[in-house]
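[SOLVED] Need 3D model of a four-part complex

Original post:
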Amino acid sequence: MQKIKLGILGGGGDSLIGVLHRVASFINDNYELTGAVFNPNWEENIGFAEELGIPTNRIYKDFDTLIEEELKLPKEERIQVCSILTPNFLHFPMAKKLMENGFHVICEKPMTNTYEEAKILADLQREKGVVFGLTHTYTGYPMVRQMRHMIANGELGKIQKVDVRYYQGWINPIIHDKEKRSSIWRLDPEKAGISCCMGDIGTHAFNMVEYTTGLRVEKLLADLNYLYEDNKMDIDGNIMLHIEGGVRGILRSSQIATGEENGLAIAIYGSKKALKWEQENPNRLKVMSDSEPMQIYTPGHAYLSEFSLDGTKLPPGHPEGIFDSMANIYLGVARAIRNQNPRSGEYPTVIDGVRGLNFIESAVKSQKDGNVWVELDKQD
Amino acid sequence: MQKIKLGILGGGGDSLIGVLHRVASFINDNYELTGAVFNPNWEENIGFAEELGIPTNRIYKDFDTLIEEELKLPKEERIQVCSILTPNFLHFPMAKKLMENGFHVICEKPMTNTYEEAKILADLQREKGVVFGLTHTYTGYPMVRQMRHMIANGELGKIQKVDVRYYQGWINPIIHDKEKRSSIWRLDPEKAGISCCMGDIGTHAFNMVEYTTGLRVEKLLADLNYLYEDNKMDIDGNIMLHIEGGVRGILRSSQIATGEENGLAIAIYGSKKALKWEQENPNRLKVMSDSEPMQIYTPGHAYLSEFSLDGTKLPPGHPEGIFDSMANIYLGVARAIRNQNPRSGEYPTVIDGVRGLNFIESAVKSQKDGNVWVELDKQD
Amino acid sequence: MQKIKLGILGGGGDSLIGVLHRVASFINDNYELTGAVFNPNWEENIGFAEELGIPTNRIYKDFDTLIEEELKLPKEERIQVCSILTPNFLHFPMAKKLMENGFHVICEKPMTNTYEEAKILADLQREKGVVFGLTHTYTGYPMVRQMRHMIANGELGKIQKVDVRYYQGWINPIIHDKEKRSSIWRLDPEKAGISCCMGDIGTHAFNMVEYTTGLRVEKLLADLNYLYEDNKMDIDGNIMLHIEGGVRGILRSSQIATGEENGLAIAIYGSKKALKWEQENPNRLKVMSDSEPMQIYTPGHAYLSEFSLDGTKLPPGHPEGIFDSMANIYLGVARAIRNQNPRSGEYPTVIDGVRGLNFIESAVKSQKDGNVWVELDKQD
Amino acid sequence: MQKIKLGILGGGGDSLIGVLHRVASFINDNYELTGAVFNPNWEENIGFAEELGIPTNRIYKDFDTLIEEELKLPKEERIQVCSILTPNFLHFPMAKKLMENGFHVICEKPMTNTYEEAKILADLQREKGVVFGLTHTYTGYPMVRQMRHMIANGELGKIQKVDVRYYQGWINPIIHDKEKRSSIWRLDPEKAGISCCMGDIGTHAFNMVEYTTGLRVEKLLADLNYLYEDNKMDIDGNIMLHIEGGVRGILRSSQIATGEENGLAIAIYGSKKALKWEQENPNRLKVMSDSEPMQIYTPGHAYLSEFSLDGTKLPPGHPEGIFDSMANIYLGVARAIRNQNPRSGEYPTVIDGVRGLNFIESAVKSQKDGNVWVELDKQD
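Solution:
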């Protein structure tokens, strides 16, 4: 099968997100890295390409040049899809221009800086019919897919309670020192937008709720936490969720949860069964019920859904991890590009991005208005 | 040492709470079961005493007779302390009359049906100078005591976030059937008071927050969950907490968390360290920090506080459980009765009861008023 | 119901084993502590009784006096059963004399110092028809009883592999210092018999194998570990087991497993299912099979055997511990004394003691003879 | 940096080992897949190359042709290293011919069918000076590297006990059916050599012991398990190890451990500290000592060794898995090929292969001779 020609924007040098995407693109043998603008600095850009050992003839000096030059190439040689790994404020203009010129897009989150921009991208994607993948990495885990499958399949009965948490501790060593906290870009509203914790990781938790349950959050009430008066960005918070069908939810997110690493976890309680999953131990899914012993599902077993099994390459007990999860999303995008009818949920879409921005802006609004309910829009 | 003469009110037959208190009173060799009214039905009352193999001469036909007859006895033979294990609505009148007559009291929670009653008991206890122990059982675990010690000792630095959960699933098999849910006393406001979930278990979670941190909750905002319109009692809910010193908290409690058994858990994040503990695995305490590996504290080690060690009888690796936790509270009450200066926190007091009722009424008020902040009183 | 009159030999002062037995005897309301020789020193003996707050008229100056005086009492007032908690070398003469005089016996392990003595006790017990309970405490856990039930019930199919471990670390801080290791009684063959590690804890592991599987070990091959030439007692070792029916087993035991607390654990693999259990987290039993998800059994659920449920007092999620486990054994003995037909396995018997001594002597012989197979006897 | 030209032998179609190696080779951007013989069947061979989307001009019809044709190419275009993923009996001739012709080798385990062959490869490797990497995948995990580092660094003090386990259950559904067990190649000595369980996975456990401790096993005593008389291959067994310096070890391995997935685990007890690690949860390392709380090390932290950190690409809490572990080994081989002085232990060498075969043959000999001690050779 012809590999899909992939371009990468950003992600050069020591960029962690760069490694994650590059490796994910290789894993299922679907993509070849064809061109890139790894870095606005030309020497670092070309130097990184050489370090990777890839041909440098399609390393471009900037994004506009990449578009211009690639369009000159015959369609079968041209980059088909670009992964946007640049600073957040560039996501919107790049994604927009890529789609306008007929390229497919893979975009890191947050998709845009504002809800308005997000809606523009959604309209454009619908108009152009290109594939748009948003890399909510955690939805690629086999056990997360199993959750989505089981709920869609009715195995939990009616969902009645959702509890999601995303706790990190990395801002704790920074926040208590006035100088440090005033110099970090993540806490500078000019550079990082209106929200730190909710924008960066709360949105993953929000997405996990909607991804697994298939239900939309209808409104939210946020209590955000800033710790110091001179700090203008939320670094922690609790958000009550009212979800369609009368489901109640609670979302907790923090970047000052001292000692926590990357603690995304979700518990979903239905009238028949319940599910519990933690990102830091992603290959175990707890399945609970009123009267039966708790079961521990692990990847690669015949008792799992096809959708879950599709995301596992090795037999049970051979732990796959976050690269493999991201690779599953890249595989979904590849199938979409090849018109192979990927399953619903194989990759997060532009709509997930729109939802995420709607969530972030609503959370901040709820806080500003005094911890009151704010309704989310109903995207179709 | 002379054993303390213990009376028991309620707790006969198959009563689980009866076993728990009786065994707890034996464990540290401090009490002798001297008299009781196990049951309003005389035959069951006396039958149970015989089944236990205890002398029946001080098994009384009712509470008033017990008071009357015991007061006739010389002081050194008289029951010194009574454990109240009766239905909730009897807690208040019994505790009141006991204190008025100079008896010490051990009382199951909720201490009373209303906040008003609770304050009356608190005033009376102060006036009479008797010992009043409220059995928030979970505060007797050695690792919970270690948490309280470490926080008081400043090891966590400034507390910045508290996250507590108490999830059970036992109402799930009942709630979805209209007939069942309308016939259970727990869901009948006439019999069970104004709250089910928050009154029964949310209050344990609330107590755990104040017990471990030593901080008072200042206000709360509740989102309670009833699932069905005809159900008038909360069976699940999320409560935002604002705690003194600008600390933010979140309390989650449920009795429809399908498959959960008795899932009380707390995480406390400070500027220096964090603590995580779960009741279902009570002999492990996670201690976390920004830069060091997570540590697992277990009971009985020299690195623990004296207060924690005092609650462990056997060497490390010999799991003690909930009976031993309750026994630690009974031990604290015994020391108080004997004027042996128990440590602060060795047993929950009437003030913990007052706080609990203030919490329950505030949570229900917040819900009724549309999920708004409600301030708690500052008990001294 | 009349309580059973219990005498205690040893276990005074700070004795941990004393607390464990005393509390266990109270828990199910079956015993009353009637008489004792807590300590050979009269002042400590009587002082301890006073500290416990029990009547001192039947605290005797020594064991022989206890026998003599109790026999003078009318049968209905007399001590019925004695718990032997003295140093090991006294177990045999005390148990012997007690049985000869018609008393029931509860005995700590090791039952005797030698296999020969053990067999004498077994013969005597058979002859006298008294009840003899050996306190292999861990067999009282509800999940251990569930294992025994499931295997007897055929749920595992044919057993094919057993793996048992008992790791402690407490000798590690002692063994590397010549002076320390030569002054501890456990490492003195004069005082502690022929084996340290296997005699003290290996025998628990051995008992766990035979208790859960219902199968007898036929022969063993031991590789014992002494670490230093001047140390004459095993402090660690691995033992291969050939079990009846062609089952293979491995037993690992250590007291120099640095950092381990009380790590008894067993895994049993059958042709249909497998079971895994750990003493330090005793309320979880893993049930595994080829094709189904792993299940976690926890106490108190309707899906458990009656035998397991009989050992749990509170609902699921209320952790009971080692005191409750020992109390279940005391309950079994009580039922036997009352002729209430306790289930097989409700308490370990004199035969378990005989097996244990046969195991210890065989292990030491295997080591002395150069790690060769040694056959165990077939007790009936 | 120029990528290293990689050839692959075997691993076509659905081969799991093929995916594992291919992905591992991509992950750190060091290799390009240049040529291959994926399959002896030409159509499947070329078809698979097309499916992967790689150029087919250097897909060869067989191994000899690959050697022949590659040697015709100028050195800078030629394949530098070949990964041998073929059936076991081909490892020896292929590795031999590759080295004789100056190619570097990456070889799956078992390295050869016999100890004799293994020694021939070792001699040849020394003579030719090529790089020879043996893919004991599990040694690439960051936490395994941390164990090796800590022990080499003296943090555990003197090692005194090693306990390693490798339990799988996949043969259980096969072994009890005579027809099934006689038709599987793994249980056919003609096809699979002298050992099934020890050859296939016991050897990983053995390697883990020597890799982490840096100590050589001196002799072993094996008790192998066949379950049925007509089964000629071990499918389970226990092996006692005497390790240099008087260290005692126990190795347990099984393929009939019902319900186990891929349960490799090791515990190492030293005079100062102990370590415990499990492959199925590879990102947690337990560090224990006599007096301090247990610590949980996780990847990516500053408290870890450089060697461990080198094997982690993402920040703490982003679980990497078995592909990343294998990729670390490929990285070590790449550094060796590039003369970049890889650390000792960055990749297993031909000597590890020789040790493994010595182990397997010794285990089988010990069993045949009646469970007696067999000495291993001292490879230098």
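Edit: The longest helix of chain B spans residues 350-368.
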